[in-house]
Amino acid sequence: MPRAWRLLDTGMSEAPFNMALEKVLLASCAEGTAPNTLHFLEFCPCVLLGYSQSVKDEVNEEFCRRNGIEINRRISGGGCIYLDGGTLGWEIIAKKNTPGIPGSLEDMYRKLCSGVIRALSAFGIDAAYRPLNDVEIGGRKISGTGGTELDDSFIFHGTVLVDFHADIMVNALKIPMKKHEDKQAADLKLRTVCMRELIGEAPPMAEVKTRIAGAFAEMLDIRFEESGLYREETASLEAELPFFRSEEWVSKKQTAPRNKGRCV
After folding, report:
1. Alpha-carbon span 48 to 6, nearest angstrom
2. In what order do the strands lie in the sheet with 134-137?
3. Does a structural domain hold residue 262?
4. Residue 117 counted as domain residue
5. 261: pLDDT confidence band, cut at 50, 70 and 90?
6. With bands split at pLDDT 50, 70 and 90, how would you rate the model's confidence at 28?
């Protein structure tokens, strides 16, 4: 019988909640108090920096303030991104020695990205893996991924652009060589693509989630059991939230990382 994983769907939440929860889920996996998990999450409009990035260098703070766009940061590295209700987040939180998970980082990225590729194929979308950690269609990015680790566990998280608002992203982020916003938005649209553009409409998030879960279940020979957060995770989340809402975290004024491990 296939091994059981938890399927967790926390729906749409504010950025501090989503970022704090990533830390809590990774910690609970590392502590052995929670099983391997596939987590779906959705975002109120926000800008998320990579762990080591500077708000001042990457974000148009005035535009974000005027338009109700939150600013926060991930526990993993990588670049600054804009997310809203058109973006589906997905993440695998698991033990490194899980059967079916490759030991090398590049092989792991390739395999876990293939779960999204399989799911997209169910919508008639022919996607491909682009090293090191992107999924693209004809050279245009539809999913970016990244992750970090804690002891014997890891989190590998990604997004799927179900819908996409290039003009908002161009204004929210300080993209290099920003001269003409209309031209930059056009250029961004040439480098990214969303499901709505490819199939003519944005499919329901529930359907995209079902396809992704089915692809991972088949690929990893597992079965999912739907579950919410455990009591200990809820308590940890409540304890972490004030920090993830704080200026200390958002501006990264702390002197040492709060999670141990590699950021990618």
Report:
1. 26
2. 128-130, 134-137, 140-150, 153-161, 87-95, 37-43, 3-13, 222-226
3. no
4. yes
5. very low
6. very high
d(CA 2, CA 7): 14
**pLDDT value of position 185:** 57
Is 256 a member of any domain?
no
Q: For the chain, what is the domain count? A: 1
Residue 55 C-alpha from the chain's centroid: 19
Residue 214 belongs to domain spanning: 3-250
Would you say residue 254 has pLDDT above 50? no
What does the pLDDT look like over 117-152, one tens digit per residue? 999 999 999 999 999 889 999 999 999 999 999 999
Contacts of 163 (CB under 8 A, 6+ apart): 85, 86, 87, 194, 195, 196, 202
The token duo for 146 is 């990244």
Has residue 260 been placed in a domain?
Answer: no
Question: Are 161 and 202 within 8 A, CB to CB?
Answer: no
Which residues 6+ apart lie within 8 Å of 175 measured at CB? 184, 188
CATH code for the domain in which residue 107 is found: 3.30.930.10
Give the amino acid at 241: L
176 or 220, greater pLDDT: 220
